[in-house]
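Exercise 7b. Backbone tokens:
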């Protein structure tokens, strides 16, 4: 279950959280034992990762697009009837306001194709997109060819998207399938089944001497799920499944793996890198 120890001159990634909108989530839709009527205002998170050695830049998830009225009509209806959103600044503005040109982003890694993670992908004209292989079927035919489609047909740019086949990936820590993306131990893309077909996470080194950060997409929608204090709630208005995940059993198994990940620092004796930053689906240790 251990994570690999740092090498001499270990490569790592500088990680910045980007503002990418907020979404209002009724707790009862996501966790058992929730206080009736309680709504959590959750950040729709996006992250900029910059490799400390080769300076390659990767954006993980794009949050909610500011002009959310331009999502497919089925999604706009969903936002108006099930969720509320507020987008003071989206991921695109966060990058530009931080001095990062969209043309300089090498990779955009999308954890999965749900609208509150995809933002506006069309703004990235040169980036290579990284997604789980099963995402490919979700956008075909897509909206507007399918007027009721939930995913735009141009969501993932043709010729610039890598659809990962996770079958031959190797284990790391508690996760059975991972890809050492830069081949230097700095950033691992994790197969994260359960939420939506093609769902992936990122495990990245955040310092040269032992820090890690885990970016979990929609693996869990509440911290009580990660601590195992609550379980996944059933009944989710507007969803096509019994809960917020397409495969509840696989989602629960993956949550347990993340729970194991939070214990690894103590196994390593890395007390100076405690589980110190908890913000929605971001876990740093």
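Sequence design result:
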């Amino acid at each position: 279950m251990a994570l690999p120890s740092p090498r001499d001159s270990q490569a790592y990634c500088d990680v910045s959280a980007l503002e990418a909108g907020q979404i209002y989530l009724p707790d009862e839709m996501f966790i058992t034992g929730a206080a009736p009527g309680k709504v959590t205002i959750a950040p729709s998170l996006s992250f900029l990762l910059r490799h400390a050695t080769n300076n390659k830049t990767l954006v993980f998830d794009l949050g909610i697009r500011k002009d959310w009225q331009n999502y497919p009509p089925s999604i706009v209806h969903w936002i108006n009837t099930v969720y509320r959103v507020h987008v003071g600044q989206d991921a695109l503005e966060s990058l530009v306001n931080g001095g990062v040109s969209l043309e300089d982003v090498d990779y955009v890694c999308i954890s999965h194709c749900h609208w509150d993670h995809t933002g506006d992908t069309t703004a990235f004209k040169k980036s290579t997109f990284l997604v789980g292989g099963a995402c490919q079927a979700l956008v075909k035919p897509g909206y507007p060819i399918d007027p009721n489609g939930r995913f735009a047909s141009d969501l993932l740019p043709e010729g610039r998207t890598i659809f990962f086949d996770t079958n031959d990936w190797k284990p790391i820590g508690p996760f059975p399938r991972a890809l050492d993306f830069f081949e230097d131990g700095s950033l691992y893309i994790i197969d994260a089944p359960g939420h939506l077909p093609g769902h992936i996470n990122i495990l990245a080194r955040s310092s040269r001497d032992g820090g890690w950060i885990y970016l979990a997409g929609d693996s869990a929608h509440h911290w009580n799920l990660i601590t195992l204090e609550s379980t996944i709630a059933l009944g989710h208005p507007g969803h096509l499944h019994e809960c917020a995940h397409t495969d509840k059993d696989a989602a629960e198994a993956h949550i347990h793996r993340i729970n194991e990940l939070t214990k690894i620092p103590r196994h390593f004796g890395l007390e100076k890198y405690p589980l110190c930053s908890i913000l929605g689906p971001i876990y740093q240790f």
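Instructor comment: The first strand starts at residue 13 and ends at 18. Confidence is low (pLDDT under 50) at residues 266-285.
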